[in-house]
Amino acid sequence: MKRPKLLNSKNIAILVVLAIAIVLPLFLRTNQYVLFLATTVLLYAVLASAWNIIGGMAGQLDLGAAAYVGLGAFTTGTLLIRFNLTPWVGMFIGALLAMGIATLIGIPLFGFKVKEVWYALSSSALVEVFRAIFMMWNKVGGPTERYLPFSAEGPRSWYLMRFNTYVPYFYIMLALLVVVFIINHRIRYSKLGYSLLALGEDEDAVEVLGVDSRLCKLKALMIYSFVAGLVGGVYGCIYGYLHPSFFSTDMSLEVVILGIVGGMGVTYGPLLAAIFLVSFREYLRASLSGMFPGKGLEGLYLMVYALILIVVALFQPRGIAPLIKRGFLKLKSFVGVK
Amino acid sequence: MSTKVLKVLFVVVMVGMMVLSACGPAPTPQVVEKQVEVTRIVEGQVQVVTATPEPVQKAELPKEIVVGVVQPLTGWATVFGQEGVIGAEMAIKHINDAGGIKSLGGLKLRMEVEDAGDKPDTAKLATESMINKHHPVAILGMYISRFVMAASEVTDREKVILIADALVPQVTQMGRQYLFRPGPTAWDHGALAYKFVREVAADNGVELKNMAVLNEDSANGRANTLGATEAALMDQFPVITALEYPYDITDATQIVQQLKAANPDVIIHTPYFNDAIVFGKAFKEVGYWPKFLMGAGACGYVDPASIEALGETAEGLAMTFSYNPAKNTPTNKKFVEEYVAKYGVIPTEGAGMNYYGAWVLAEALEKSGQMFPDDPLKPENLRAAFMALDLTSGPAVESYPSDHIKFDALGDNEYPGVIVLQVQNGKPVVVYPKEVAEAKPIFPNPHYKP
Amino acid sequence: MTETAIQGIITGVLMGMIYALIALGISIIFGVMNVVNFAHGDFVMFSMYLSYVLGTALVWDAVQTPLLTFPILLIFGLIVYYLIIDRTLRQLYVVQLAATVGLQIMMRAAALVIWRGQPRALQYSFIQGNFEIFGFQVLTSRFVAAVISLIFIAAVAYFMNKTWAGAAMRAASDDLDAATLMGVNYHRTYALTFALGSALTAIAGGLLMSFQQTDPVGGIRFGFLSWCVLALAGLGSIPGLIAAGAIVGVAESLQVTFFNPQGRLLAVYAIFILVLWLKPRGLFGRK
């Protein structure tokens, strides 16, 4: 199958929507909350879309996202603090470092054929290992937060990638998302993509066909960890500090959940899931958590969220993407567009 | 196939964004919105200009003043956050019962609560959402130092006062303009823990040769330990062992055995809530007690849960706190009585800090009303009022551990107060400083065997 | 030096037996049903809370509470199985992950709502104290906990090997289709397996409550550790599980004693990752 073009004359809709997404901050700029929420949604969407390559396509349940994010953040931040290197460059060094470490770990991991739940657990252990290391490594990490320099406006603000508004972060994340989509799309219709998809189905059969499954998985892991490292660099700048708690198992789990709920291997699934779950969770938090002050009912919103998660997992095991697609097609036929 | 997919994708993006933008700006009370238009600087100085054409004209006051409380109400820091909300709620009730802010014509306060969760994402979102939806003049809380860090960037941008209850000293050292911390720092805690032990030992004629420091590995734990170590270094008092452990430790046996082998005379320990119980039980079970086991940093050992769980073992354990529940003043007594009646235990750190935090805010609003009758709620004015505060009496001081509240350039209190609570007969009592003590400290630790 | 090391090993081995008991629950659930329960650690947390509630209400000692928490957890396990796990059996294991992570968030939030965020602990247990063997200190509570854990591990081994229900479980684990043909109702077998695996956390919870406290996020401490134990042990080997528990306990204990308590799990994770690479079936795996 020939790879369909990501953009062509037929789907002007894409350009229109992209244009809308681009101008969106202009309308929202005074509403920092929604802008920040949109940025957070995009951030998780980028992570989950990158995860989609290794998790969704290749079927490797990687729980190490936070390890790469943390590495990216610490590299970028430390370079900025120590050597006054701008995060625009630092994030790429951080991403390369994350990718390098992922490769070093990936070679034996795939070489020894660590699979399924064991792969998930060992990548999850990676997060904890890095947290412990950075907690003890007082020169770079340590329990006391390290604060990134800040400048409210002017070129200095751009140099530090620290802004008084979320608009630039929004665009950075949007740009990353577009890039990750293109990567996803290209891989999906390349030899690597077919191999990965086949791997996700049946690893041994692919081996028989002469595909080097280790190399394929390693490539997927490298792309994924690179993107996660990039996101990490920006993540540190958004929050303005470095702390070993960036290596958080909860974050990894959240990324994986978005990937799964979105629909494994579907390019746009993670974005859908991020839009729904992240903003839904935030909506629940904002509306329910302060409702009964002092009554100890703050956990309620998490119960509602968990219930939704379980229901989606049980009754929509292929993710919400097919559901949306079906709904959209119905809508289209209802309107009468062909 | 792909074009369809992409179409769907982008339509969904659009719809999602629209949903987001639609659900964001919640309908705000009209009056509050008016106040915001006048006082907040959005996108440059536009509003300042519109506010000044007629200098005589007074800025219109809202119907009530909104105070935001953003605390970790889910996740591992819940113990503190939930208490903090209760403390703030009671303070606001008391402020309103006492006639509100008198210099603003008896304006009442209203509390809004949001959960900061246990991640920086949620903490920052909570701050943004609080400011966006409720337009508070001030936010109380945050507790965890890295949340203060993330949130204070927001509050400084929006010029909302943040009254922090985190102890970590670095919090106020980033040049934030709108951040104030009435309470003491962790350094104060650690130093006082050390000073207390030395003083009481001298009073009881017990000779102390050395000490060990032990803390859970958070910013707060380390800062307490540094405070204590620094104070000891000044005295050239030897610190023979320093141990740091993760707060989610499952078994403290080895650490206690290590301490037993080092055998220091005093241990200054900064625990969180959970590990205090684990350590208390381990000390008892291993059968090792130093001459004195001193806590710093206002978490475990002396809180109701620890006393209940440790039973007789808790006897004699002491801990530094940033709030004095035994302070004999009308405001404080009223607060403690109501708290005990409602929850069955005395208020300690979280409730106390937010109680006086809210009162400090009330005093600052009062001051702002006197200083800037034309526009008391303008952030710059309110900040100036905070800086001008020099309290030696009144309800804020009545519930504060020291007798003086005055903010320095960093936003810290120049006269921080720390007290020591010790478990005596199963109840926490204030034993230090001597002027406010309810009872004489038990020294050495009752379980200590020479 | 050697003495400190031996002391650390003793402490570690004793603690490791409880890890083995918790891991046994995961082992039979994963081994028989091939179900990945990410919420297993939170079952421990839940049992500990139940122990706290019963211990305070009935003025029982922590070690007595499993008498009641065991049946409660058995029923709870059945409910969870029929509500959630049963529906995920035919799905990819990622779906199980999503569902059990949802369960995990749910249990933590429920604990937060029911018991507030306060850490809860029971009073000093009558098994707490210490005694000396050859000059090395042994904590009585850890010792008793280790012995009781071993007894229950042995009991489960007996149950799996000598009873019909156990044989059905093993059969289902070996070859589900064949077992179904032989008249094993796999739903019922699986339900029993899951309930038993969950109920084992009640024993561990009661034992842990004798010297520990619990809080809503406390489950994370045990969930991951028990997977490490299982990875080391491999599936299906009960003596292996005991040995793996001891290894994990000792690694943790020596790390705390000799290196830095901050990285208390580093050694465990290092062993875990190495074993996955070099012996993917565990050190003592049956299949």
Describe it for me?
The complex is a heterotrimer of chains A (338), B (450) and C (287). With 338 residues, chain A is mainly α. Chain A has one domain. Chain A has helices at residues 12-28, 32-57, 65-83, 87-111, 116-136, 154-160, 167-188, 191-201, 203-208, 213-239, 249-262, 269-288, 300-315, 321-335, and strands spanning 146-147, 241-242. Chain B is an alpha/beta fold. Chain B folds into 2 domains: 61-184 and 329-398, 3-Layer(aba) Sandwich (Rossmann fold); 187-321 and 418-436, Rossmann fold. Chain B has helices spanning 2-23, 30-39, 46-51, 78-97, 120-134, 145-158, 186-203, 219-234, 253-262, 273-286, 304-310, 330-343, 349-371, 379-388, 395-398, and strands at 64-71, 108-115, 138-141, 161-164, 179-180, 211-216, 239-245, 266-270, 292-295, 318-321, 419-424, 427-432. Chain B has a 7-stranded mixed β-sheet, sandwiched between helices. Chain C has one domain. Helices cover 73% and strands 4% of the residues of chain C. Chain C has helices at residues 2-33, 40-57, 66-88, 93-115, 140-162, 164-174, 176-181, 186-209, 220-233, 238-259, 266-278, and strands spanning 120-121, 130-133, 136-139, 213-214. In chain C, α2 packs parallel to α4 (93-115). The longest helix of chain C is centred in the first third of the chain and has 32 residues, at 2-33. The chains are: A mainly alpha (338), B alpha/beta (450), C mainly alpha (287). Chains in contact: A-B, A-C, B-C.
